[in-house]
Amino acid sequence: MFEKLKKKWNVNNLQLTLILFTFAIGGTLTGKVAKHFLTYIDLPHIILTTIVYILLLTLVWPVMVLIVSIPFGQFNFFKNYLLKVAKRMRIIKGD
């Protein structure tokens, strides 16, 4: 599995490890930030709370992985990765 990722992303073992750490730490921080934000707003219904939480995760995650990628030296990888995802989702226009 890791060999496929290394080949797909054209990275070495160290870069793959740093990328996986960035995904893990960025995702964890995203959940914590979204949960922390929800403590400040009092939503009346659990369904509304869940919807807002999912929206927050969706909006905060790209920012978190970019921030976390800087100290790991993987900013360019994640910038390109997020651009590719945005193009696939047609959020931005592709080349």
Largest sheet: none
Q: Structural class of the helix and strand makeup?
A: mainly alpha
Net shape: globular
In angstroms, what separates the terminal alpha carbons?
30 Å
Q: List the domain count as a whole number.
A: 1
Mean pLDDT: 91
The tally of helices reads 4
Radius of gyration: 16 Å
Oligomer: single chain
Order of H and E elements: HHHH
> What is the beta-strand fraction?
under 5%
Overall helicity: over 70%
Number of DSSP strand runs? 0
Uncertain segments: none
Task: Give your account of this protein's structure.
With 95 residues, this protein is mainly alpha-helical. The protein has one domain (2-88). The chain has helices spanning 2-9, 13-40, 46-72, 75-88. Helix 3 (46-72) crosses helix 4. The two termini are 30 Å apart. The mean pLDDT is 91.
List the helices and strands and how they pair.
Elements: H1 2-9, H2 13-40, H3 46-72, H4 75-88
Please name the defining characteristics of this protein.
single chain, 95 residues, mainly alpha, globular
Brief digest:
With 95 residues, this protein is mainly α.
